[in-house]
Amino acid sequence: MLNNDVLRSLRYTLDISDAQMAEIIQLSGKQVALDDLAAMLKKEDEEGFTPCDDELMAHFLDGLVYFKRGKDDSRPAQPFELPITNNMVLKKLRVAFELKEDDMHAIMQSVDCPVSKPEMSALFRKFGHSNYRTCGDQFLRNFLKGLTLRVRG
């Protein structure tokens, strides 16, 4: 799934402005111009569209965790894992929104996409683990849709 799609979806979910998105990115230590951010939030077929790179997406996801849960200055910042995968987006969203396994299942159930417990836990395994499963674009889209329903009501 394109990083731009994830940004647009989360912006809608949180009901925040471009300036607030820039502040969230800044929480993880990266500055982004509002014009650049606005270009990334455009659709692919719109004039002035700019693709969002993995580094900016990583900063946004970490900033989102700090925004939702607060930053613990006593712990060192975790290094970024690049490239950003759908599995990593899912993991960061689970942390940011403090979702437990039952919450994750409820979110997927709300969009008529039931997932078994082993299937769900396989998405959070480390790459290379025998039970690791890649998170597909459709699964992440459904999760973001369900998350929006949960957050916005």
- Which descriptor suits the 3D outline? globular
Work out the helicity level.
55-70%
Low-confidence stretches: none
Between the first and last Cα atoms, what is the distance in angstroms?
Answer: 24 Å
Q: Total strand count, please? A: 0
List keywords for this structure.
mainly alpha, single chain, 153 residues, 8 helices, 2 domains
Describe it for me?
The longest helix has 16 residues, at 54-69. The protein has 2 domains: 3-69; 86-152. The relative contact order is 0.15. The chain is mainly α. It is globular. The chain is built from 8 helices and no strands. Helix content is 58%, strand content 0%. It has helices at residues 3-14, 18-27, 34-40, 54-69, 86-96, 101-110, 117-123, 137-152.
Give the secondary structure arrangement, pairings included.
Elements: H1 3-14, H2 18-27, H3 34-40, H4 54-69, H5 86-96, H6 101-110, H7 117-123, H8 137-152
Helix pairs in contact: 1-8, 2-4, 4-5, 6-8
Task: Give a concise summary.
This protein is mostly helical and 153 residues long. It has two domains: 67 residues; 67 residues. The chain contains eight helices and no strands.
